[in-house]
Amino acid sequence: MITKTYTQRKKKHKALNLADACLRCGLYEHTTKPKLDRVKIQDGTAGIVLVILGTPTRMAEARGDIAHDAVSQVVHQYSKKYLQDCEVWITSSIKCYPAEWKVKTHEARWCSTYLDEDIEQTKPVKVIAMGELARMSCKEIDQEYESCVHPLQLKEGALPRTIVEAFSRTGRELRQELGKIPWNPRLLPVMRQALREQYVGLDFEWNPNTDVTHTVGFSSSTSCHAIPLSMKARHLIKRLVMNEDITIVGHNIISDVIRIMKWVRPKDIKCRFMDTLVLKRQLASHLPVGGLKFFAHSYLYLEDYAKDITLEDFNEYSEKLRVYCAGDAYVGVLLYQYFKDTYKNKWDVLAPARDIDMDMILPVADMIKGGIAIDDTQLNTMTKDINKQVDVLLDELSTEYEINPSSPMQVLEKCNELGFDIESTGEAVLKKVNHAFTTKLLEYRKYSKLATTYTTKIPEWLSADGRLHCNLHLASTVTGRMTSSKPNMQNVPPKVRPCFQSIFGEDGILMTVDASQSELRCLAYLANSKYLIDSYNKGVDMHTLVAQLAGIDRRDAKTLNFAYVYGASDFRMQQELVKLGKSMTKAKKITQDYITSMKKLGIADYQKKLLTKANQTKYNTSIYGRIGERLNPTQVVNFPVQSFSADLNKIRIIQMYDKLRENNLLSRIWLEFHDAMELDVHVTELDKVIELIKSLDTRIPDMLNKRITLDLPIDIKYENKNWN
Q: At what angle do helices 584-601 and 542-550 cross, to 10 degrees?
């Protein structure tokens, strides 16, 4: 804590010739050697590189030189190896050693004055920002930079690969060693080579205003070409996708597959698809999030082939855009090879998960393309009801309590005024406050969120066909669980669901196909709990069994089972019971009895082994090969179960999608929902669809050679054309 008075600080500040920002910061008070200056560590003529670190270390402060500590030695090492013939300088975002003081965002902002001076005086051609503080400072002064992890992060298990890539990329660029896009003026040689390799890079460009596709790019591993999307081009694409020996490669290829489906029937598509965005999630989740151009420049060391492209260029076919389009197709193939070669150790391990995700590309593309219809009557009714509730609650809160319920500060002050000593207005905190004010406030927030998230957004999301086409993401979670956006259909409140209806109108039925207790059954299998597996096979579910073993209510057992699967602590499980109306004493007793029953079933020992292994290896592996790195204890316990369940659901979807295609049915899968799939069924095909669902293989596959037979029963639920 700063103990000096403002006057005393001002005198010291003047004596040290520091900037005005230092007076507000005060970090210089904690060090004997404030404002450590930049240091040149290497001479060269190829160009000037400025490497920015976070804060000076204790050793740097002791020596009065930021270039003589363990962190700077890493910079020395990589500069010598990758920045040959370059002049290299080291500086830091924060100029003073912070001691025990935790550096805040505004302090980094104040210190950016000195960073601006460093850049002005050294005039670097390239800047490398190492760590979050360095990136923050560069953004503050609008400085372009190459990004990598801070060297100290390497102690926490981060790979040095990001540092190597940043330094190598910078060196190559300054030495003009970046590769060029191998444009071929003729399409035929490109296609011949691609067909020999059986991998074809593919990319489309379209008008963002009209959604009309006008350019298509093709690539092999050695050259690329692009042409207008004519009938000739469509015929070529059709021949490619109907060839089961061909793999089409692209980055976020689902959007391209949706376009292919406009002139090729899904049942005719026989090729495989390979999405490099999915590969990135599976193999290199530690890498920064970025688009195709980022990877092309940062990891494939290619020249920026998109630097002259503007938004207006996408409106129509042009010579400039066709080179860009071909470049995207080429980078997709190269990125596939990069992931395959760079992560050889993971490649074979992940093969089962990779096959599942790639087989899901076509079903997911079909789900997005088909979309879902909106019941205008239901939407209007819901909108009026919700807006009415919002207005009533807003009026009551503002009149009775004289506050703006949207202001966290006013809510906090009102709670303190009512005698509740809280420091946050979060939902979890307010739920613990037993008062009419907080009850009404939470109700207001609920309806207000429904209004802002759904009633006002759904009309904006509708496409020209009158349907809502939400985004489905295959590669957003390490467990393999899919997510959705615009809107998040996997988290739609029950009150909103009736707005969504079958695309077949009165002739349609929305059906839910749900795997019964999927994650709990997967847990039983993974833990090899013979007692639990035998009970499941006899028709006794886990909730009932645990309730009997622990001598507790089935409702309590169900609550604790789901909490336990997700790695909840004893205290967290007690809190869940308190929410159900139990006293803390009673909750502790129930939790203790529950933990005892988990030991009897072998679940506790299984989770203990998981944690021990994760501590030793620093990663966890799912049954289908997905790799979870640097997981916290809760994630370690939950990762194999959630991942196994998610992959089993994907397998069921793939099977069902193939059956629907083979039988030429109008009925379709329109949404993946964790351990369920949502079907849009034409009423004339209802019996056939139910027959196909019942023909699905619902057994949990024997992946562990334990010769365990465990079924995963499927529930079929449907009522009418609307989603309930």
A: 110
Spatial distance between the Cα atoms of 227 and 714, rounded to a whole number of angstroms = 48
242 Cα distance to chain centroid? 32
Spans in the chain with pLDDT lower than 70: 1-26, 28, 30, 100-108, 153-161, 288, 705-708
- CA-CA distance, 662 to 570, in Å (whole number)? 50
- Cα–Cα dist 600/593, whole Å: 11
Q: Which domains does the chain have, with CATH numbers?
A: 6-174 (3.40.470.10), 187-349 (3.30.420.10), 385-468 (1.20.1060.10), 499-519+642-718 (3.30.70.370), 520-632 (1.10.150.20)
Nearest alpha carbon to residue 387 among 457, 450, 460, 461: 450
The structure tokens 């080579």 sit at: 193
Q: Are 251 and 204 a contacting pair, CB within 8 Å?
A: no
| Cα(355)–Cα(626) distance, integer angstroms | 11
β-partners of residue 678 are 512, 671
Q: Residue 589: enclosing H or E segment and its boundaries? A: helix 584-601
Helical packing angle, 351-359 and 361-370, nearest 10°: 30
Which residue in the block uniquely carries the two structure tokens 């059986």?
198
Alpha helices in 360-491 (DSSP H): 361-370, 376-400, 408-417, 427-431, 436-450, 458-461
How high is the pLDDT of residue 329?
97
User: Alpha-carbon distance 628 to 642, whole Å?
Assistant: 12
pTM of the model: 0.81
Q: State both tokens at 349.
A: 């391990």
In whole angstroms, what is the distance from residue 368 CA to residue 669 CA? 10
User: Are β-strands 714-718 and 483-485 bridged in parallel, bridged antiparallel, or unpaired?
Assistant: unpaired
Task: Identify which of 516, 704, 708 has the alpha carbon closest to the alpha carbon of residue 621.
Answer: 704
DSSP state, residue 701: P
* DSSP helix/strand/coil, 50: strand
The rounded distance, in Å, linking the Cα atoms of 506 and 315 is 39
* Distance, CA of 223 to CA of 684 (rounded, Å): 50
Pair 202, 179: CB distance under 8 Å: no
pLDDT one-digit tens code per residue, 92-142: 888 888 776 566 666 667 788 888 889 999 999 999 998 888 888 888 888
pLDDT score recorded for residue 64 = 84
- The pLDDT score that the predictor gives to residue 157 is 46
Contact 257, 116 (CB under 8 A): no
Taking only the tens place, the pLDDT of each residue in 691-713 is 999 999 888 887 776 666 788 88
Rounded Cα gap, residues 226 and 233, in angstroms:
10
Element (H, E) at 321: helix 319-342
- Of the candidates 25, 64, 97, 1, which has an alpha carbon nearest to the alpha carbon of residue 10? 25
**In the 8-state DSSP scheme, what is residue 699?**
B
